[in-house]
Design brief:
With about 300 residues, the chain is α/β, with parallel strands linked by helices. It is built from eight helices and 17 strands. The strands form three sheets. Strands 6-5-4-3-2-1-17 form a seven-stranded mixed beta sheet, with helices on one face. A seven-stranded mixed beta sheet has the order 7-8-9-10-12-15-16, covered by helices on one side. It has a three-stranded mixed beta sheet with strand order 11-13-14. Helix 7 packs parallel to helix 8.
């Protein structure tokens, strides 16, 4: 059974295992100034499942259309499910999860869900470079984070007309991130961990052993609710030491919203991985490459 992974930009992937098609996030139609990925949401005609890491638009916007076109079932947080229901997705195509569930996707493939953490978006603006060491900002309360986020939203509103129009179209009324989730796919060919924002609970990660890990590389990492003391590259490498995967595939590291995001230089991540997790190979994937994710493992 072959399994292939297509990167569709930002943190969105299409995982094809035999006849089974699973979308990991669903943000495909983005601003025209972002590099084209070679596919639009109108071209998606096949999907069995859509798993959503969290409820922000750059992950969830589009899931409602894929669900409508294909009949796929959406797996996501209760907030994701609330938004999708408000967007007209029938309840029988919605599976709310909070972590702790194991869902059968086909006779041979299942996915387990784990609670996770969102990156510290409140911490740095603009987003730090991969090798930029960020320190401090420990113990910042939820209320203080919300105050800081207001400045971020104001900055988004001052970006180009094109971005502002896109943000308006993609606004689905999410109340925050809805609680970030991790997904661990088990297939006959291997296991795959999916993360769509740079955060984790160390107590959870250290007990998972995926063959391949998709790890988000954007913003200031979040470890157990506090911002990483170090660089994004070190944050990714630390996760590799906990998970010990054979391969790491990056997500969320392209310039998905020009003016706000930045194309993450993968060089420092490669260096830190070589130092801390020398047995893990970093896979650098272009868009739509149908990468044979477990081949040769
Ligand atoms: Zn997010």
């Amino acid at each position: 059974m072959t399994a292939t992974l297509d990167w569709l930009g930002c943190a969105t992937f299409r995982l094809t295992i035999g006849n089974l098609v699973v979308f990991l996030d669903a943000y495909i139609d983005r601003v025209p100034s972002a590099q084209p990925t070679g596919i639009t949401i109108d071209e998606i005609t096949r999907a069995d499942w859509i798993v959503i890491g969290h409820s922000h638009f750059d992950h969830l916007y589009g899931a409602e259309r894929i669900a409508r076109t294909t009949g796929a079932t959406i797996i996501g947080s209760y907030e994701t499910v609330r938004i999708m229901e408000a967007q007209g997705v029938p309840a029988e195509q919605l599976l709310p999860v909070a972590g702790g569930e194991k869902i059968r996707l086909s006779s041979e493939v299942s996915v387990s869900v784990y609670p996770s953490q969102h990156s510290c978006v409140w911490s740095q603006s603009p987003m730090p470079a991969a090798d930029q060491v960020c320190l401090g900002e420990l113990g910042v309360t939820y209320q203080e984070q919300q105050e800081r986020l207001k400045a971020l939203w104001a900055r988004l509103g001052s970006l180009s007309d094109e971005v502002v129009a896109h943000l308006k179209a993609a606004a689905q009324g999410a109340r925050g991130d809805g609680g970030a989730l991790l997904y661990l796919f088990e297939t006959p060919a291997g296991s795959l961990l999916y993360q769509d924002t740079s955060g984790y609970w160390s107590g959870i990660l250290q007990n998972l052993r995926p063959d391949v890990a998709i790890l988000a590389a954007a913003g200031r990492g979040n470890i157990d609710g506090e911002p990483v003391q170090g660089s994004l590259a070190q944050f990714v490498a630390r996760q590799a030491t906990l998970l010990r995967p054979r391969r790491v595939v990056l997500s969320h590291h392209d310039d998905w919203l020009p003016g706000f995001s930045r194309a993450i230089d993968t060089g420092p991540i490669r260096e830190e991985l070589a130092r801390w997790a020398p047995r893990t190979t970093l896979i650098e994937m272009g868009y739509l490459q149908a990468y044979p994710v477990f081949a040769g493992l």
